[in-house]
Sequence to fold (193 residues):
Amino acid sequence: MLHFGKASHNDVDIKENNYMLEAGWKNVLNKDFAYEVFVNRSFSNSTKPFFNNTSELIKYLNANNEGAPYWQKVETYAVGLKGHFFFINSSKSEFSFYVGSGIHFSKSSLQTSKSLSYNVNTGTITDIDQVSQDESLVKSFVMPGLAFRYWVWDKMALGVNAIAFFEIANAEIITQPVQANFYSLAFNVSFKL
Fold:
């Protein structure tokens, strides 16, 4: 089973270059229940490659009438297991609620500034003290969702999934620049082996 869609990371302010991909293998145990082993990747990135070049950064901010930069990136790789509970499970279609859990690796970045200097007469930025923060984490997650598939041929189905992905946070201060949490509406293609 392959899923592909847009990921909306709720901790990312500028939603650019974002997607979600997932591959899984599902075993239907009976008319009411199935389990699925899966790997998942989500990504969102509004960071700029020229951020550490002060003159390029000032030129970009002035040309685009932007104030202080606040650009983020998050990249997540997850592996886990889902339990599907079927509302519908017929020879042509299936509709299920599922809950998944597992371990994920995330890498996040934040590009911003400590201070800006402006030319009062022109309103343009003349100097900037930029700062970036990067962090990598390994954490557990929970992933509830809804899945629908319709068998268009004997061995192939098309469908849609509504996915929510939440880190299971410990009772600690969160220091990561961007949390890996996201929502996605994904299309899926399934094949019977």
